[in-house]
Amino acid sequence: MDDHYTSAFTEEERAARRQQRMAARRAKQQARRRRQLRVILPCGLLAILLVSLLLGSKATHTQDEPDNAETAGIDLAAADAITPTPPVVEEETPDPTAYGVTANTIRLGEEFPSAYAVLIDLDTHEILAEKGAETVIYPASMTKILTVLVAAEAIDEADLDDTFTITREITDYCYVNGCSVVGLMVDETVTVRELFYGTILPSGADAAVGLATYVAGSQEAFVAMMNQKLEELGLSDTAHFTNCVGLFDEAHACTVTDMAAILEAAIENDLCREVLGAHTYETAPTADHPEGQILSNWFLRRIEDKDTGGLTVMGAKTGYVVQSGNCAASWAQDSDGHRYLCVTADASSAWQAIYDHAELYKSYCSPATNEEPVESEAASQEGTPLS
Asked: What DSSP string runs through 68-111?
């Protein structure tokens, strides 16, 4: 990356932002402890009451046999005054990725086209269907879900109207690695908001690296923030990223279940949910693009007329590298607002990934389970690099 690039933030500003994030995490932990105490305290009080009753009973029995008590040297008054100490209960931090496999979880077989899949009831965290859900895969451009999440948590709303100028190092990086791009040019200046939409809708590596550089000063520093976020989400045992784009690297990997957890965290963020759910976005005119550009989420535009059993697909991000096949992560909801997560990997084509998501939503989330499943034949279109 650009060794001479000057970060948009000073070291002091970045330190202040880290402190803000730490304070927010501490506030969440304190709120969790308060919820746990509301459960633990009644149990502790009940234990104290039971011990007090037992001690009272023992004291009464001892008074009936004063000689034995005196022989044993027991101070009955002191015994009655004892206040039992409630048991120490170590805090158990809830695991946000604890999606539960139940007796009703469907084990998808070889007939299901994608090699890996997980379908989750977001409101209950029950895994409805899965196939190789805990196998480590290469996530390709689904990586960019974490990219926008980390960036969104690092900036303020006012920063979205700030601007960033694309460098030659960024365009060269995208060209050398064969990335999908928005098409931003050297010295083209765009808003931070457009970097968010450019990262997701056309899966632009130029926008993603620009966003990372704006937030952290370099892609390398930003990737460290990404891995810190994976650790916060409890995913670091199986998930580790080496870039913010989704380029293949043996050390850049996660499971489809990990990616579902990342997507869940992203849609809880207002900005990420908005960006991931946008079908199109029109950028402002620049000297290089005097009419602006219309960015489009290919997956959302093409699944909207597919049979998903009445569910509405609310947002999505696709991915493709040779080593991972065609991947996709999406979430949907039914007419009652019940939400579901779906992540698939290693489909034979970008169209097949769409059909697989539609089939999973219709077959296992829709009340109309007696209907025929949607078509699951691979379409002729092949995946495009880092879609």
From this structure: HHHHHT--HHHHHT--PPPPP-------TT-PEEEEEEEE--TT
